[in-house]
């Protein structure tokens, strides 16, 4: 893992990932997932709340949402996971810290699979799957918040760190 991070966490790669991150958030998601209240943007939800939302989407929006998750939201976790992982590694050189955004990405993938399954099998209901999907949604958001918090702390530390002088 360390070799991978040392090799690929360049400023150029971070910039490319940031541009892709921006494009996804500003253009692709609003166009391909126009749902007003998607499950994956909630912090947590009960199985009952999940199915109330899914029912409220209607047949067409359920299909649009599922397609958006399949074709767009399976790439996005790779982009933000690597971007934040590379940033954390560049600042702190810690493989452990760099793995936190990758945990968010993994949780996001599992969440996407769960939501797609819930959407495709509706009106059938699987309360256990809905609950587990919510658990991965929450894990994703906790991991993202931890990544952003650590990144902010490290950046502030870097900004306030006084340059050391060398005495001759």
Give a quick summary of the entry.
The protein is mainly alpha-helical and 168 residues long. It has 6 helices and no strands.
Q: What's the number of helices?
A: 6
Low-confidence stretches: none
Number of domains: 1
H-E string: HHHHHH
Q: Which shape, going by the Cα principal axes?
A: elongated
The first-to-last residue Cα distance is 40 Å
Major beta sheet summary: none
Query: Rg, please?
Result: 19 Å
Care to describe what's here?
The protein is an all-alpha fold and 168 residues long. The chain has one domain (2-160). It is built from six helices and no strands. It has helices at 2-8, 11-32, 47-71, 76-92, 95-121, 127-160. Helix 4 runs antiparallel to helix 5. The longest helix has 34 residues, at 127-160. The protein is elongated. This is DUF4386 domain-containing protein.
Task: Tell me the layout of helices and strands.
Elements: H1 2-8, H2 11-32, H3 47-71, H4 76-92, H5 95-121, H6 127-160
């Amino acid at each position: 893992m360390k070799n991978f991070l040392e090799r690929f966490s360049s400023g150029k790669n971070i910039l490319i990932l940031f541009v892709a991150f921006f494009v996804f958030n500003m253009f692709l998601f609003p166009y391909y997932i126009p749902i007003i209240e998607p499950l994956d943007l909630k912090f947590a939800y009960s199985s009952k709340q999940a199915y109330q939302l899914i029912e409220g989407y209607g047949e067409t929006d359920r299909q649009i949402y599922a397609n958006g998750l399949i074709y767009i939201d399976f790439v996005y976790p790779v982009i933000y996971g690597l971007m934040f992982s590379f940033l954390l590694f560049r600042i702190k050189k810690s493989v452990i810290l760099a793995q936190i955004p990758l945990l968010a990405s993994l949780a996001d993938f599992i969440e996407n699979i769960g939501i797609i399954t819930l959407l495709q099998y509706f009106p059938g209901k699987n309360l256990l799957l809905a609950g587990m999907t919510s658990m991965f949604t929450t894990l994703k958001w906790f991991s993202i918040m931890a990544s952003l918090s650590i990144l902010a702390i490290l950046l502030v530390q870097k900004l306030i760190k006084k340059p050391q002088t060398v005495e001759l």
